[in-house]
Amino acid sequence: MENSSKLKRVLTDAAVRCFRERGYDDVSVNDICREAGVARSSFYRVFSNKKDTIRCLLEHTDTNSIVSIEELLAAQNDFDRMWIIGDRYISICKSLGPELNASFQCMSVRGEIDLLSLAHSVDAWFIRLTRSCQKTGIIRSAEPAELIGPLLADMVYHEIYAWSAHKGNYPLRARSRRITEALVDLAPEYRWSEAQLAAADKS
Predict the structure, then answer these.
(1) 0.85 cut: is pTM over it?
(2) Per-residue model confidence (pLDDT) at position 1
(3) What is the distance between the alpha carbons of residues 79 and 102, in angstroms, rounded to a whole number?
(4) In this model, does residue 2 exceed pLDDT 60?
């Protein structure tokens, strides 16, 4: 496997599968290599340690790579576009599971990875979309978009943390949606119904 970016992807995907199954602390570099079908020497050609696989995963989890322009253009309005971006991060975290997310949160607190910067990588998007929604009356809060945008990113970060701490025992997507609607004072016609909220975490 000559292409280093492809090798990184294969090893990162294998690492995530191992971490999800056994937990971060109980997985070794050898386990990752075995899962990926890659020699240990190849691992060290692209990574220094297993923590680097997490950094690689985070580097590839940005707005441009997880949400397509076509998907955003197809949305009904700018609030839906904002929700698509935030919801994609929620989906990624749900797919990793609460235990692995909790491990990542601990690593972030220790300064080994930077989850908070990842959460705020969407600030510019959220600020622009919030401003547009305020102009059209979709968002009724009069607070500056420059405050609301980063606050929404903080909310998603906090909810993922709380969901992980509670071992995934509550509906992350529905709760995040309801808090988002309240924070921005979303116009009633754009709020999700109880049925939509109930269905949100089943997908």
Answers:
(1) no
(2) 44
(3) 29
(4) no
